[in-house]
Design a protein that fits this description.
With 291 residues, the protein is mainly alpha-helical. The protein is 77% helix and 1% strand.
């Protein structure tokens, strides 16, 4: 067998993996396109559903729920954005299955058992965050924004120079959709924090003690995140900060449980030595207090 044959044989598995990856990606893209087409056919009912928080706030104020198109093509782009979001959510289970089928053959049985719960928890936490944003955050945010309207004596518009001024909401459908999607995606991604940190804790990349020690830096980071991903209103920023910080504390608790389970497993397998641990603790105490 020549040297060239040896190189070809050694590179064959890599080529097979790349071919499989291409196949998985093609299947995922096709599933996304199918989901997008399905959602495009029902884009209007989906958009009407997404306007529920705004219409609820306007109804409480005695106003009609009216959105306008400020350009001829805006209606088409609204339908496209709705179908993109809906198509991704609709195809995500199949896309996740394709990802799992590509990764699973390279994992040990114990690694599969460790990774699979996180793959299931990730979309669940995203939907939980999206639902929280849609049903809790957006009504509060729109109620805050619409509070800056001003009405004349009877709600009339300007008729002449002496008439009282009315400044009322006439929103663009596309601008409303952009803001609503921003809320949904931001909270959906923020709710991934426990999944990400717990997975990193299981891999040994972070520890509960380490996360606790950087808590003050995490608070600053969460404040910056809340300022960046939410509109400039205090209510939404406070809600996002409170939720994400709560998720951070939950993550510390989950990582601590992972560490406890790992320690119990090491004890059972005889790899965990309490005497060595006590000696290390005493040595650390001696270094801190030489006396």
């Amino acid at each position: 067998m020549s040297q060239t044959d040896d190189i070809d044989d050694s590179s064959a598995p890599l080529i097979e993996h790349l071919a499989e990856l291409r196949s998985r990606l093609i299947h995922s893209v096709v599933a996304f396109i199918i989901g997008m087409v399905i959602c495009f056919t029902v884009a209007t009912p989906i958009f009407n559903f997404l306007t529920a928080p705004l219409c609820q706030v306007l109804a409480e104020r005695g106003q009609d729920c009216d959105l306008i198109f400020i350009s001829p093509q805006e209606g088409f782009f609204v339908a496209i954005k709705v179908s993109l979001l809906g198509g991704f959510l609709l195809a995500f289970p199949y896309i996740g299955l394709q990802m799992w089928r590509f990764v699973a053959p390279g994992l040990y049985k114990s690694e599969k058992g460790a990774f699979l719960p996180f793959l299931v928890a990730s979309p669940f936490m995203f939907l939980l965050g999206a639902g929280f944003a849609f049903y809790v955050v957006t009504p509060l945010a729109y109620d805050f924004f619409l509070g800056f309207q001003q009405f004349g004596a009877e709600g009339e518009a300007v008729a002449d120079a002496a008439a009282p001024l009315s400044v009322v909401f006439q929103g663009s459908a596309q601008e409303y959709l952009n803001l609503t999607i921003k809320f949904i995606v931001a909270f959906g991604l923020c709710f991934q924090l426990p999944v990400l940190l717990t997975l990193m804790g299981k891999a040994g990349l972070v520890s509960a003690e380490g996360l606790g020690n950087v808590r003050k830096y995490a608070v600053v980071g969460i404040l910056v995140l809340a300022a960046l991903v939410t509109p400039p209103d205090v209510i939404t920023q406070v809600i996002l900060f409170t939720v994400v910080y709560g998720l951070y504390e939950i993550s510390i608790f989950l990582v601590r449980r992972v560490e406890a389970k790992r320690e119990a497993q090491l004890r059972a397998e005889g790899y965990y030595d309490d005497e060595d641990l006590a000696d290390a603790a005493m040595a650390e105490m001696d270094e801190e207090d030489p006396k």
